[in-house]
Amino acid sequence: MLKSRGLLLAFSVLLGASLAAPAHAQFSDSYKFLEAVRKKEGQEVTDKLAEPGTTIINTRDITSGETALHIVTGRRDLTWMSFLIGKGANVNVRDAKGITPLVQATNLGFLEGVDLLIAQKARVDESNNAGETPLITAVHNRNTQLMRMLLKAGANPDRADNSGRSARDYALLEGSNSPMINEILNSAKAKNPLGQTRQSYGPSL
User: Fold this and answer.
1) Which of 76, 130, 135, 157 is the most buried (most CB within 10 A)?
2) How far apart are CA 132 and CA 163, in angstroms?
3) Among candidates 93, 158, 166, 148, which has minimal Cα distance to 126?
């Protein structure tokens, strides 16, 4: 009786291990890759990316949803950002909170990172799960230099977050002559220097 129970227990352990193995194998490569990125192990990362048919460049941390590009953006590492983007990293990827590398770089005040991501076609109006765009983040941080960069790249100052407020609304909270609202107004003037309105056709009523 004891022998049969022992065999049954051993069988259960082996069965559990066999079922868990595929999941473990699935996550182990991703974990090792992201850890190599965190530790700046260039050769290890290069070897992983060189494997035929790999899509590991955009793999996500199972807890935070961060990708390698999030990790290197978070440490303000322009060299690694350029390297990963060159290897196919998605500049518009979102983590578990919906944060893109551009939102992340904006929140850090990382000018060079924002400039690189914009140049690599990052969507300037891509918001996080709260609806906060990079421009709204820049306004919250009172970073007029980043606001200027984002507005020049086409960021919409009237796109609202989940609370219904836009970058323009938040800028106006600082006063009608605040540096933030002036950046938005100056951007509009730069795009339409003569104050021209679009020509309309048809009768005027």
Assistant:
1) 135
2) 9
3) 93
Q: Hey, how many other C-beta atoms are within 10 angstroms of the C-beta on 19?
A: 9
- Amino acid at the residue 189: K
Instruction: Write 44-53 long-range contacts (CB < 8 A, 24+).
Output: 49/87
Residues 6+ apart with CB under 8 A from 102: 91, 92, 114, 117, 118, 122, 123, 124, 126, 134
Maximum alpha-carbon separation in the chain:
97
- Rounded to an integer, what distance in angstroms lies between the CA atom of residue 48 and that of residue 30? 10
For the chain, how many residues are written? Answer: 205
Average pLDDT value for residue range 90-97: 97
pLDDT value for 4: 52
Q: Residue 142: left (phi > 0), alpha (psi -120 to 50), or beta?
A: left
Q: Which residues share a beta bridge with 107?
A: none
Give the pTM.
0.79
Asked if 92 and 136 touch (Cβ cutoff 8 Å), the reply is: no
Distance CA 60, CA 187 (A): 36
Distance CA 181, CA 5 (A): 75
Burial class (CB in 10 A: 0-12, 13-18, 19+), 153: buried
